[in-house]
Amino acid sequence: MTEFPKGFLWGGATAANQLEGAYNEDGKGLSIADVLPGGPERFNLVNQPDFNWTMDDKKYTYPNHNGIDHYHRYQEDIKLFAEMGFKCYRFSIAWSRVFPNGDETEPNEAGLEFYDRLIAECLKYDIEPVITISHYEMPLHLVTEYGGWKNRKLIGFYERYASVVLNRYADKVKYWMTFNEINSALHFPVMGQGLVKSNGGDKMQNIYQAWHNQFVAGAKAVKIAHAIRPDILIGCMLLYATTYSYDANPVNQLAALKENQAFNHFCGDVQVRGTYPAYTESVMNRYGFSFKDLDVTADDLAVLKENPVDYIGFSYYMSTAINVTDKKLATANGNLVGGVKNPFLEASDWGWQIDPTGLRIALNELYNRYQKPVFVVENGLGAIDKPDKNNFVQDDYRIDYLRKHIEAIAGAVDDGVQVMGYTPWGCIDLVSASTGQMSKRYGFIYVDLDDNGQGTLNRYKKASFNWYQKVIESNGQEL
């Protein structure tokens, strides 16, 4: 087995809105996640023309409100992560805990104090925090009052927020990321940009304008971070779905190339290289507008050029196959992006196609494209876990999935790829972002909570807990 680099960052990943709960405690404001209904239809609901960001407790449930109560049980959870041997823990700061509405001039001290405690708890066990500054949880007020990220004013609001958290924590936290899965907005802009049909989310020009504003805001965060601490590492974060042509038909090959440019590469090219790629106009023309139609200033372009990110963080759950020559082929579900069913792959309980080799390809594509370190910050298997009478889950299917993906990372290391670390998603069961369900579980730790919010919230180790403990202890040698 390949030797993983010394200091390889083994750990796990979560997001504030999916596990913290305490959605209205200690001065926290509402985030967009707080008003997303729970259940497998949540994406369909927010895509309706009349969705207006209001809650209806009589019609829907809102599982993000309570999450798994990590806000009050973080010490117990971090202790379990330490028992597994985590070298790092990727989590996000909830923007609306720090700036409840997003546009205040002064932060909410009670919100910052929670992250003081959380970071201290990680460091107590020598766990390196890896912090996502914005992970699908922007303050709701920035959407209802300003229209989301298509409004340039959000650049300043984000810059102020990033400045506060970076100045407060940079001496304790070396690893940061600007925006979670920023490119997901191409297919679903609600969570990353606060855009739905009712406020312009069905117009691609708005999505690209929102991206530009986020690129500038992220570059300003990079500038702040480097000024505070020269050795800080601040990355972008992409949703990467390795994309194949369904067959050798040149028409499908070209379609796969175009999909790669628009989805997998565009956001990375701007943030890592600091300039818009040569194919920018081609991509935008496809959607009926031009780069000159965007509000872009010379100062914006200078900030992007001068402040590229230090590394590429990315999520990888599945690959996708492109076929534009046969409309009758069955489609596949996926992490905000689908495609056609690949006959060579099996799928998860939720229809996501399982492709470990695709991760090795992704790592090679990203590293050879950018020549900067890459970090697998999300990867995992969402599955229906059935605990026995002792609340033990024998999740061999999860172990098998993770083992094969770690082997793929080892293969990429052999290929010469500089991989920083591996933080499987949902290292403890939490509320699914795509379905708002607890039953779609990813964790090494089972949380006794169902889709209706019923349960003890007690934590139980799954079989994968002990397996991953040995993986970390052996630095990936014992799989």
Query: What's the shape?
Result: globular
Mean pLDDT: 95
Helix proportion: 25-40%
Q: Enumerate how many helices there are, as a single number.
A: 15
| End-to-end C-alpha gap | 9 Å
CATH superfamily: Glycosidases
Structural class: alpha/beta
Strand order of the largest sheet: 1-2-3-4-5-7-11-12
Task: Return residue spans where pLDDT drops below 50 for at least 5 consecutive residues.
Answer: none
Keywords: Glycosidase, Hydrolase
Protein name: 6-phospho-beta-glucosidase
Organism: Companilactobacillus kimchiensis
Pfam families: Glyco_hydro_1 (PF00232)
Question: If you had to describe this structure to a student in words, what would you say it looks like?
Answer:
It is a single chain. With 479 residues, the protein is of the alpha/beta class. It has helices at 16-19, 42-46, 70-84, 95-98, 109-124, 141-144, 153-169, 190-193, 204-228, 250-273, 280-286, 298-306, 356-370, 396-414, 463-473; strands spanning 9-13, 88-92, 128-134, 175-179, 233-239, 243-245, 312-315, 320-322, 346-347, 353-354, 374-378, 419-422, 445-447, 459-461. The protein has 15 helices and 14 strands. Helix 14 (396-414) links the parallel strand 11 (374-378) and strand 12. Helix 3 (70-84) packs parallel to helix 5 (109-124), helix 7 packs parallel to helix 9 and helix 9 packs across helix 12 (298-306). The protein starts with 8 loop residues before the first strand and ends in a 6-residue tail after the last helix.
